[in-house]
Write a structure and sequence with these properties.
Largest sheet: 2 strands, antiparallel
Strand order of the largest sheet: 1-2
Number of helices: 1
Radius of gyration: 20 Å
Helix content: 10-25%
Strand content: 15-25%
């Protein structure tokens, strides 16, 4: 994947807008991560899903700033470290 790639479409349920089986009025995006170690874990009882909310919350709490390196096209992370 690259920046700008489509990762999903907005909707009102996990199904199509036409079905709207859950009567949800607010558009939203379902976002999930599935771990697949072998083919038996696809579309079956052995699916392993990760809670994206907890993952995104962790990443947000541990983010850092970035700054452009002068005279280059590169960027670097700015960590808040302290020497003690």
């Amino acid at each position: 994947m690259q920046a700008g790639d489509v990762i999903g479409y907005m909707g009102r349920t996990g199904y199509s807008r036409k079905e709207n089986t859950n009567n949800i009025d607010e558009p939203h995006l379902h976002f999930g991560i599935q771990l697949i170690f072998d083919e038996s874990q696809k579309e079956g009882n052995n699916e392993i899903w990760i809670s994206c909310y907890e993952l995104v919350k962790f990443l947000r709490q541990n983010q850092c700033l970035t700054q452009k390196i002068p005279d280059t096209k590169e960027w670097q992370r700015v960590y808040k470290t302290e020497d003690k």
